[in-house]
Design the sequence.
């Protein structure tokens, strides 16, 4: 039990009165990275938002256990401080708030100017520190900025919502490299403390980041837990219809 | 036979409109105020001023104890200029009354950038003038540190009538901080400040004004700016403390080719404050350009944020940005951006937005571990951040400090 980073039991989530997720069960151990596939609108992002604790995503049943603690009713910011972080698919523009400010916030008072510069250089965003966060950023810049903030935040569980969407091939490689650093892929799995859950449509990111377990979400239900590469191959060959059969 | 009337003097013109209300803002009954005050003693060393007064001045950006960071200082308390000092060659800083005695030609600038008969407030200043400041950078002088000017209201119930003339001669560079403030004991008062700016060819003038009033003060500044060819005028206006009623709408005219004007305003209206603040720019010179940026926050007061740009010459460019944040309470923000182009080839644009802090933005920051109040404070701080192109770093840092010092009052 001590190795379990995240455990989700019978989770049901509704958004504005409409049930989106139905009885989701999921377990991620420390050191593991899981991938979540599924068609548009199937509820993948809803799952991540619910784990992160966004109030709009109301949990009507089930529990979320993080590091052995029931966080089902814990507010968003407390979950973040406990060690959950998220890279957004489409983060908002916050006018006036600079990339530098976001990094400083993500560092939670633990960093200094040197660590901020270092992170920005690593993400190839050194020229963006003085720019308003996400304002006029390209797709790749947004994604790099999101992962860069997580690198500052150092969460034990990273929720990555489509980190490669809208990103060219060169940038995917860099994003993959940053995610590997975030998830401590350079050290042995048994020594890793960090875990990740990645939503991917295309699976391109899995060419750079190894996710050993995968799931498919269809209509708010999880199916096909197993090897992520095999699942991706099945989806590519037979489409999501094949996965839907497992649920029915 | 038609009789030709001799031209009216400014006093005659003023008398003719002494009851004329302003076209904008609530009317202020001038009869409720007195215009005379006791003569204040001249201070060779302003650090001898009462600590309480110095503290209020500091909140408006005026440094008394460490003047090495200033090229010049002028302080007017009520109706008396109590201190003036110039620390750089090629820079003149003195009371308007003194300048009028020294230079005949001042009258060439007197009521040229703004009409004396604009309204009853300009008329009142002309008829009851209580001095003001004259600041001039001689041709090609680059003023290293900013000049600071303080207009201080100490006497209760006083109408302070000041007339300022600021001239940046050809090729010069001048930076001014004006702090307008009151004694903390001031309950009721009126500040009427006429300021005329003349930016000669190739000159650059930055003007940073911080208002630090108390809830019973009415304020009616009247400002006119004339910018000649390749001249630059940058204005930063900050008011984050309570005021009873404020109406101002500086008017700048880019009369020369490639003249540039920027107006930045940071306005915070606390409960009971009424502000009607605008900026108007007429792009009359070919290739001239302007940017008007206004940031307004209400925590319960009312703000009308205006902006007007008129393009009257080829290749001019203007942009207006009014953004308002209703932070709490029942305050109102009314943004009125206006554009007028009178010929083909002008490029004018505006954007305006009024609303509350977006929940999505707060939650984004909370997902990084900030509490709700920390996230809100970060967003408000960002909203108020004024990054002004062309402002010297020292001045920019001071302005930011002044804004940050007031932030905690509005959270």
Sequence:
């Amino acid at each position: 039990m001590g190795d379990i980073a995240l455990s989700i039991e019978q989770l049901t989530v509704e958004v504005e009165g409409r049930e989106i997720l139905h009885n989701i069960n999921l377990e991620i151990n420390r050191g593991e990275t899981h991938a979540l596939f599924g068609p548009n609108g199937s509820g993948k992002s809803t799952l991540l938002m619910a784990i992160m604790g966004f109030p709009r995503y109301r949990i009507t049943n089930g529990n979320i256990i993080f590091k052995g603690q029931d966080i089902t009713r814990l507010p968003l910011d407390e979950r973040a401080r406990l060690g959950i972080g998220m890279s957004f698919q489409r983060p908002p523009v916050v006018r006036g708030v600079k990339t530098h400010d976001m990094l400083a916030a993500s560092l939670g008072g633990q960093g200094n100017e040197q660590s901020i510069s270092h992170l920005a250089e690593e993400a190839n965003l050194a020229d963006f520190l003085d720019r308003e966060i996400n304002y006029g950023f390209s797709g790749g810049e947004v994604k790099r900025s999101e992962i860069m903030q997580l690198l500052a935040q150092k969460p034990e569980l990273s929720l990555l919502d489509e980190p490669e969407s809208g990103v060219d091939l060169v940038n995917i490689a860099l994003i993959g490299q940053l995610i590997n650093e975030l998830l401590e892929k350079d050290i042995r799995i048994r020594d890793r403390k960090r875990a990740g859950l990645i939503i991917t449509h295309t699976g391109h990111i899995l060419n750079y980041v190894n996710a050993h377990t995968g799931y498919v979400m269809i209509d708010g239900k999880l199916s096909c837990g197993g090897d992520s590469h095999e699942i991706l191959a099945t989806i590519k060959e037979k489409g999501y219809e094949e996965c839907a059969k497992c649920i029915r | 036979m038609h009789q030709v009337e001799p031209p009216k003097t400014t006093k005659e013109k003023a008398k003719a409109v002494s009851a004329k209300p302003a076209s904008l803002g609530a009317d202020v009954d001038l009869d409720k105020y007195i215009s005379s005050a006791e003569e204040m003693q001249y201070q060779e060393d302003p650090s001898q001023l009462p600590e309480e007064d110095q503290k209020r001045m500091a909140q408006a950006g005026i440094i008394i104890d460490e003047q090495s960071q200033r090229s010049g200082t002028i302080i007017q308390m009520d109706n008396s200029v109590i201190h003036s000092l110039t620390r750089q060659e090629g820079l003149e800083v003195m009371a308007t009354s003194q300048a009028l005695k020294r230079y005949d030609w001042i009258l060439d600038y007197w009521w040229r950038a703004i009409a004396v008969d604009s309204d009853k407030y300009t008329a009142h200043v002309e008829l009851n003038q209580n001095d003001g400041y004259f600041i001039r950078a001689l041709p090609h002088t680059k003023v290293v540190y900013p000049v600071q000017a303080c207009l201080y209201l100490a006497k209760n119930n006083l109408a302070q009538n000041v007339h300022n003339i600021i001239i940046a001669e050809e090729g010069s560079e001048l930076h001014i901080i004006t702090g307008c403030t009151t004694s903390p004991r001031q309950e009721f008062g009126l500040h009427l400040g006429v300021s005329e700016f003349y930016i000669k060819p190739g000159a650059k003038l930055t003007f940073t004004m911080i208002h630090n009033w108390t809830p019973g003060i009415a304020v009616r500044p009247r400002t006119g700016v004339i910018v000649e060819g390749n001249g630059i005028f940058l204005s930063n206006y900050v008011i984050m403390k309570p005021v009873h009623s404020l109406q101002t709408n500086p008017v700048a005219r880019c009369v020369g080719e490639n003249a540039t004007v920027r107006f930045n305003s940071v306005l915070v209206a606390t409960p009971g404050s009424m502000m009607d603040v605008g900026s108007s720019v007429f792009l009359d010179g070919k290739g001239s350009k302007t940017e008007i940026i206004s940031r307004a926050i209400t925590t319960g007061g009312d703000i009308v944020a205006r902006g007007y740009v008129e393009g009257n010459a080829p290749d001019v460019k203007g942009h207006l940005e009014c953004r308002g944040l209703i932070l709490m309470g029942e305050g109102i923000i009314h943004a009125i951006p206006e554009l007028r182009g009178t010929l083909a080839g002008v490029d004018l644009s505006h954007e305006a937005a009024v609303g509350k802090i977006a929940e999505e933005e707060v939650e984004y920051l909370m997902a990084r571990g900030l509490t709700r109040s920390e996230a809100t404070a970060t967003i408000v701080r960002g909203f108020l951040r004024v990054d002004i192109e062309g402002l010297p770093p020292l001045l920019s840092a001071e302005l930011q400090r002044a804004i940050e010092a007031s932030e905690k009052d509005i959270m």
Summary: The first strand of chain B starts at residue 72 and ends at 77. Residues 332 and 339 of chain B are 23 Å apart (CA to CA).
